[in-house]
Specification:
By secondary structure, this protein is mostly beta strands. Among the domains are: 107 residues, Sandwich (Immunoglobulin-like), CATH 2.60.40.1120; 126 residues, TonB-dependent receptor, plug domain (Ferric Hydroxamate Uptake Protein, Chain A, domain 1, Beta Complex), CATH 2.170.130; 42 residues, no CATH class. 9% of the residues lie in helices and 47% in strands. It has 12 helices and 52 strands. The strands form 12 sheets. It has a 22-stranded antiparallel barrel. The longest helix is centred in the first third of the chain and has 16 residues. The two termini are 35 Å apart.
Length: 1016
């Protein structure tokens, strides 16, 4: 810190400091006997006197400050007193008085506080100078965890950021990320940038990450303009440092198991329950007591089987291993970091898994003075396998659905080798065939940067990037013989190839200047261009001569399909940012982005997205000086900004007519010739979706141990893009229009506490966020209903629409006294009782209401860590509250003969002997039963609140004296568990985090792993 500047700031104490000093001196004069007067001098690390240093007696009101020469005098009660020396930006010291009368002190700068920087758009800022709402993740929270992707590892770490992991499917286990709720009817994913370039997150090795920052408000995100309406995630990867080369190895291995699985009734009990269901429905019984006994004793397994389909399905090893090596080092002129990684994830079912290979090289070169050159290259290869089914194809979902439906009394295989079968198929036979979807993905990202500093504080920087993605997808569905008389259609192949490439460049000028020592300006201005190209090809063949011939040419050309297309998108942008601060107290920032997109017609092509923010560091004011020993940072923030969105559009050309060549052949001259036609209506008046956000925040630092952040936001998204149906008399299909408006309001709180207690370092952190989502406008109408989902003005986006329930009918008299039921048909005691909301005496569709919302109201997480000598421990909990989850028929089990089986949920069902229950009676009508989830009701809408031990780590670092003898800097061994425990009232057997479709998806998984970190 410049000495002259420092002295000048310290002289600006003013009237309040003098007044406080006089009051403190007066207090000293009134003290009792046995007092000791202490004198001394406070210097900085350069032995310069420090002016205005706060000096206080711990746990008292006695205090003073240093004069212009750094000298002080203070009277303390006795020799047991402890004197505290503190000043903003410096490490606090506590010194016992003892028998001394002169105490000279040298304060060290708190570089962690002064120099801690946060990555923001196109640069970095000191954390204490931020004016927007920004959250960061310590990279240590991602390291050494059995993570298969980055997004799932962020759950619970960031206030206001909701991350839902849909399943544990290898390659499909990434988290869905939402920043401050959902503000659009379409794509609500945040923008992700890696080393300053837009990229994907889940192909990055977590061990390569140096910093991860989330920009949550418009003021922080506006410099990214049209792509930032849903928040921005900034990731920087590790770089080399000048010095001796360093080698780091991190490896772990472990096993995955489902976090929860439903328990299904076995054959004998199911037969008894099915008889009961038939009797309840007035039908003849299916099984005699003698037949039920055969289920129990296993005397006739071909005809009276007791098959545990789940046990047959979950035969995958679940083995998982991850290895990462990085080498870094360099000189003042050139630095490097190179890493390679390997991930293997075997599924919990056979034929399913993932292998991922990562390589990254980051180079930073200073060939001449004032010139910086950087090259970042990364390549990722993923080989994905997923078991598929012979029923509808498309992956493993139908396998899980069928396993959860097929009756246990259907044999897996009979004694003669034939498969047991039902109309929908035998799911284990599909796996035995070895049929899969094979996906080969490749990602490449190359970034080149060049920066030249013309004069001090003025530099020009260029960033140029090239990004490609390819996927080769092959699905071969084989013909299958369940028995000599039943086949499952012809074998067939789907071949899909995807590829895209993006070329982008950013050029920006950066200038910083200070005037009169207290007025500090930073200006950034730049230009962005981007070109995107997408290509898709699809081919289909069937009737291959053999299941062993899987080349596309092996199939018959009869019924073949060939199609493909390309798409292009271009963007141009201008952007700028101006920062100003006065003496580190008053902070202002303004951003703008002017975006143009080829998606829009010329009249609406360009969008202007500005933002403004300011902050007041109250802790820097002179009147706060008496409190600086306890309050080290106190800052209030406020911001407003506007952002755009075009990512909702799945149409690259929504404003201009295009021709479709697919299925447009026509007869001409006695022949079928190719043709083209316009299919979709276009809207030349289409414009940007816009999001306006207000944010008010408070940052508090208490001593050096506790930091607290609170934010309130009000986010309004207008002109929401949505496909609107055309009139029935219009020949063309739906078109895009700006039709909606959605509001999100919420509050966020986070805190982090760190404390050193002798040999124990203790830390505790937590965050919680509340969000209220509401639709304000919707396509000129009040609501849009799609099955159980409803979008209604005045309600949340992801609302569920159905009937309210009020217990069960207990008697025929109860039924007679209840409103006429036109929902369930004939009802009997034990059926669900729906509520007549309209009050017209009739139960019908008019009684449906919004019964809940799948989005949680609260999202929270907290961590507890401790280190003692070489031992370390970290517990990280994550959860949500207020969200709902709907249970499908496959999830709770249905009674439908061969095509169903109940879960243990139904053991507490209503019977004339067991009326004190809330579980409906049994019905043999399967999912069409009068009380089943196919009639959407509040009964099957479960509370999705949960608290999960997301990660547990226990580690031990070998003593340095032991490892140094082996030329090793550090060795740490550890145990780590992911999704170890879950506390919830949700239906047993199902994971509350998984969204919809329970009963037909790959389950969420728990991972137990062991690993080692070695640094050479």
């Amino acid at each position: 810190m410049n000495n002259k500047l420092k002295k000048r700031k310290q002289r600006e104490c003013g009237f309040f400091k003098v007044l406080i000093l006089m009051m403190a001196m007066l207090g000293l004069g009134m003290s009792t006997h046995a007092q000791i007067t202490i004198t001394g001098t406070v210097l900085d690390e350069k032995d310069e006197p420090m002016i205005g240093i706060t000096i206080a007696v711990k746990n008292s009101t006695i205090g003073t400050s240093t004069d212009i020469d750094g000298k002080y005098t203070i009277t303390v009660p006795n020799g047991n007193a402890v004197i505290v020396y503190s000043y903003i930006g410096y490490q606090r010291q506590e010194i016992p008085v003892g028998s001394r009368k002169v105490i000279d002190v040298k304060l060290k700068e708190n570089t962690e506080l002064l120099d801690e920087v946060v990555v923001v758009g196109f640069g970095t800022q000191k954390k204490i100078n931020l004016t927007g709402s920004v959250a960061t993740v310590d990279s240590k929270m991602l390291e050494n965890r059995p993570l298969t992707n980055v997004s799932a590892g962020l759950a619970g770490l960031l206030p206001g950021v909701t991350i839902t992991q849909k399943s544990g499917l290898p390659g499909g286990d990434g988290g869905t990320i939402r920043v401050r709720g959902v503000g659009t009817l379409n794509n609500a994913n945040p923008m992700v940038l890696v080393d300053g370039v837009e990229a994907t997150m889940d192909n990055i090795d977590p061990n390569d990450i140096e910093t991860l920052t989330v920009l949550k408000d418009a003021a922080s995100s506006a410099i990214f303009g049209a792509k930032a309406a849903n928040g921005v995630i900034l990731i920087t990867t590790k770089k080399g440092k000048a010095g001796k080369s360093q080698v780091n190895y991190s490896g772990n291995f472990g096993w995955q198991t489902p976090t929860a699985l439903p328990k299904y009734i076995r054959s004998a009990e199911y037969a008894e329950m099915y008889n009961e269901a038939l009797k309840n429905d007035g039908k003849s019984l299916k099984f005699t007591e003698a037949e039920i006994q055969k289920f129990r004793d296993g005397s006739d397994p071909d005809n009276f089987a007791d098959t545990d389909w789940q046990d047959l399905l979950y035969q995958g090893s679940g083995f998982q291993t991850n290895h990462s090596v990085n080498v870094s080092g360099g000189t003042d002129k050139a630095r490097y970091m190179t890493s390679v990684g390997y991930l293997q994830q075997d599924g919990v079912i056979k034929l399913t898994g993932k292998k991922q290979y990562n390589i990254r090289t980051n180079l930073d070169i200073n060939p001449i003075s004032k010139l910086d050159v950087g090259v970042n290259l990364s390549y990722t290869r993923m080989d994905l396998e997923e078991a598929t089914n012979s029923y509808v194809g498309g992956g493993a979902d139908q396998i899980f659905r069928q396993v959860n439906l097929i009756s246990p009394w259907i044999p897996y295989r009979k004694s003669n080798g034939d498969y047991g079968t039902i109309s929908d198929g035998n799911p284990i036979a599909w796996i035995d065939l070895g049929q899969q979807i094979l996906k080969k993905r490749a990602y490449f990202l190359g970034i080149g940067t060049i920066k030249y500093e013309f004069i001090k504080d003025l530099s020009l920087k260029g960033v140029f990037s090239y990004k490609t993605f390819t996927e080769d997808q092959n699905e071969f569905i084989k013909d299958i013989q369940y028995n000599p008389y039943k086949y499952q259609g012809p074998n067939k192949m789907h071949q899909r190839d995807y590829s895209n490439e993006t070329v982008a460049s950013d050029i920006f000028l950066n200038y910083s200047k200070s005037f009169n020592r207290n007025h500090n300006f930073i200006f950034l201005g730049g230009f962005h261009s981007e070109y995107y190209h997408y290509k898709y090809t699809y081919a289909y063949r069937e009737n291959f001569p053999s299941n062993n011939l899987s080349d596309l040419n092996g199939g018959s050309t009869a019924g073949m399909k060939n199609e493909g297309y390309t798409r292009e998108l271009a963007m141009l942008s201008w952007f700028g940012r101006l920062n100003y601060d006065y003496a580190g107290k008053y902070l202002l920032e303004a951003n703008f982005r002017y975006d143009g997109s080829s998606r829009f017609a010329e009249a609406n092509r360009w969008g202007f997205f500005p933002s403004f923010s300011g902050a007041w560091r109250i802790s820097e004011e002179s009147f706060m000086e008496p409190l600086r020993t306890s309050i080290t940072n106190l800052k209030v923030r406020a911001s407003w900004g506007k952002l755009g969105n075009q990512a909702a559009l799945d149409d690259y050309y929504p404003t201009i007519p295009t021709l479709s060549l697919k299925d447009q052949d026509y007869a001409f001259g006695g022949k079928i010739v190719p043709g083209g036609a316009t299919i979709y209506a276009k809207n030349p008046n289409l414009k940007w979706e816009e999001t306006r956000t207000w944010n008010i925040g408070l940052d508090v630092g208490i001593t050096s141990d506790l930091n607290i952040t609170v934010d309130y936001y009000d986010k309004l998204t207008s002109d929401i893009l949505m496909k609107v149906p055309t009139p029935d008399t219009y020949a063309l299909e739906n078109f895009w229009d700006n039709v909606g408006e959605v509001s999100n309001k919420g509050i966020e709180f986070s805190a982090q506490y760190n404390k050193q207690l002798k040999n124990v370092m203790f830390s505790f952190g937590g965050n919680i966020a509340y969000n209220k989502n509401k639709i304000l406008k919707l396509a000129g109408q009040n609501e849009i209903i799609d099955g159980k989902d409803i979008k209604r003005v005045g309600s949340s986006l992801n609302s569920i629409y159905g009937y309210k329930t009020d217990g069960l009918y207990q008697s025929q008299e109860d039924i007679n006294n209840w409103p006429t039921n036109n929902i369930q048909g004939t009802v009997v005691p034990g059926d669900l009782r729906y509520v007549d909301v309209s009050g017209d005496g009739v139960l019908n569709a008019a009684d449906r209401v919004i019964i809940g919302c799948t989005d949680p109201k609260f999202v929270f997480g907290f961590n507890l860590g401790a280190t003692y000598r070489g031992f370390d421990m970290l517990l990280f909990f994550q959860g949500t509250a207020g969200g709902k989850g709907y249970m499908e028929s496959e999830a709770i089990g249905e009674l439908n003969g061969d095509n169903g089986k109940p879960t243990t949920f139904w053991r507490n069902r209503w019977t004339p002997e067991n009326t004190n229950t809330n579980v409906p009676r049994l019905s043999s009508q399967g999912k069409s039963g009068p009380s089943m989830p196919s009639v959407i009701s509040s009964y099957w809408l479960q509370d999705g609140t949960y608290l999960r031990l997301k990660n547990l780590q226990l580690g031990y670092t070998l003593p340095a004296k032991l490892t140094h003898n082996m030329q090793i800097s550090k060795v740490r061994v550890f145990y780590s568990a992911q999704n170890l425990l879950t506390f919830t009232s949700f239906v047993k057997g199902w994971d509350p985090e998984s969204p919809v479709g329970r009963g037909s998806h790959y389950p969420q998984v728990m991972v137990n792993s062991f690993g080692i970190n070695v640094t050479f």
